[in-house]
Amino acid sequence: MDHKRLTLFAGHYGSGKTNIAVNYALHLAKEGKKVCIADLDIVNPYFRTADSARQLKDAGVELIAPQFANSNVDLPALPAEAYRLVEDRSSFGVMDIGGDDRGAYALGRYVPFIQKENNYRMVFVANCYRPLTQTPADALDVMREIEAACGLKFTDIVNNSHLGPLTDGSTVLESTGYAESLSTMTGLPVFMTTVRADLAPAVSKHIPNVFPLQLQEKYFDLPDQKL
């Protein structure tokens, strides 16, 4: 798999970008790379990169998360340390961008640094089973809104089509036409197809670039946490 120095994951609310960002950071670390992941999502307080803080730390991945993440503060503040991620080129950086155009605004302040280095992958996470991105045309509308909000063009697509716990191999395989259509419409490659780890061996027999996912625990599901 070809890795860029910076990889940014963005998409519609609930597309699964946070879980993919965490898994991708862990994958880079497993390859022996120095990795830092930044959570720039100040919109959605329920699915946070910080939920995986312990797992990331154990893997040697540095985490930059908004102040007051996983607290009862409605709007966490963007971390100033995120500038270090785009300025310091000694490590691989993964960025989890907020959902839709509203969440993508936060990325805008880092775009000049990202463009100057020009060693990045801006990934649109697509799920054809989400209500507002069920067609390639709908997904394209979301893509354009995010690009306009942050000032950075997408370079790749990730097909993360799933139905939560109801997902099986056919769920993923039936979404490939959707991903291919979106790729044709945009001229962007499908970087990878993500699938729950236990389904990956079977799915990978039929489609290329399958990326297995370990599902991220959610803060409100974790034991011994005080809200």
Structural class by sheet pairing and helices: alpha/beta
What would CATH call the class?
A: Alpha Beta
What does the average pLDDT come to? 87
CATH topology: Rossmann fold
Count of helical stretches = 9
Provide the CATH architecture.
Answer: 3-Layer(aba) Sandwich
- Give the ordered list of helices and strands: EHEHEHEHHEHEHHEHE
> Can you tell me the residue ranges where pLDDT is under 50 for at least 5 consecutive residues?
69-75, 219-227
Largest sheet: 8 strands, parallel
Question: How many structurally independent domains?
Answer: 1
What is the secondary structure topology, with strand pairs?
Elements: E1 6-11, H1 17-30, E2 35-40, H2 53-58, E3 62-64, H3 82-87, E4 92-97, H4 100-104, H5 111-117, E5 120-126, H6 136-150, E6 156-159, H7 169-173, H8 176-186, E7 190-196, H9 200-203, E8 210-213
Parallel strand pairs: 1-4, 1-5, 2-3, 2-4, 5-6, 6-7, 7-8
Helix pairs in contact: 6-8
Task: Please give a structural write-up.
The protein has about 230 residues and is α/β, with parallel strands linked by helices. It has one domain (about 5-220): 3-Layer(aba) Sandwich (Rossmann fold), CATH 3.40.50.300. It has helices at about 15-30, 55-60, 80-85, 100-105, 110-115, 135-150, 170-175, 175-185, 200-205, and strands spanning about 5-10, 35-40, 60-65, 90-95, 120-125, 155-160, 190-195, 210-215. Strands 3-2-4-1-5-6-7-8 form an 8-stranded parallel sheet, sandwiched between helices. The longest helix has 15 residues, at about 135-150. Mean pLDDT is about 85; it is low at about 70-75 and about 220-225.
